[in-house]
């Protein structure tokens, strides 16, 4: 009896290190993201989450280590790696003087998507994300939530295999957030993999089947969400891993 070959991790990070001056951002960071997963990258402010994501897409050059995206080594084939990735960064990278339609058509042309396919996909994305009525307004006039939805549309337009999302639901209303989550479910059902960073543990607990905890530039815990929780809230497991302190009863007495 033959068995299908296991799917290789779409993202493999090995011994990644990065220093900015005297500040160590990443320390020998190593992890794999399972194919088809929704992988939550969590950690305190300044822990190295954003540096990790920016290293994966080639915006930050590590001092040491390697990154492989869908079989492409980022150091030697950054264009091949980027072709397999869709990205929503924080802060958002949008052409604010363009309308959403113009922005997405421009990206489609850059990605080499033929005009008919591009227009069909853009029409469906704008409709699904409730942006059709504002599609011909300049992005500069959009609310933060509308900008987030436009960025997500841009990230999935070329049907990438890996989505990297930095705080994707921050500032998004509940209705739009549900729509965006449904899109991510559809993306994964089609074989895609999602990695997103967030400070909101409840959100990560609801959406992610795998979690990696970064602290001081190192991966201090990683695995299936349920295994890390061990029957507790993910927030409690997170605090146990990175440590935390309670407010001294004598501190800030004037607030009482």
The second-level CATH architecture of the largest domain is: 3-Layer(aba) Sandwich
Sheet-strand content, in percent, reads: 15-25%
Helix content: 25-40%
Strand adjacency order, main sheet: 6-7-8-3-9-10
In CATH's first tier, which class of the largest domain applies? Answer: Alpha Beta
Mean pLDDT: 91
Number of individual domains: 2
Largest sheet: 6 strands, mixed
Using the alpha-carbon principal axes, give the shape: globular
CATH topology of the largest domain: Rossmann fold
Low-confidence stretches: 1-5
First-last Cα distance: 70 Å
Q: Structural class, please?
A: alpha/beta
Give a count of the beta strands, DSSP E runs of length 2 or more. Answer: 10
Radius of gyration: 19 Å
Q: Specify the number of helices.
A: 9
Order of helices and strands: EEEHEEHEHHHEHEHEEHH
Provide the CATH superfamily of the largest domain.
Answer: P-loop containing nucleotide triphosphate hydrolases
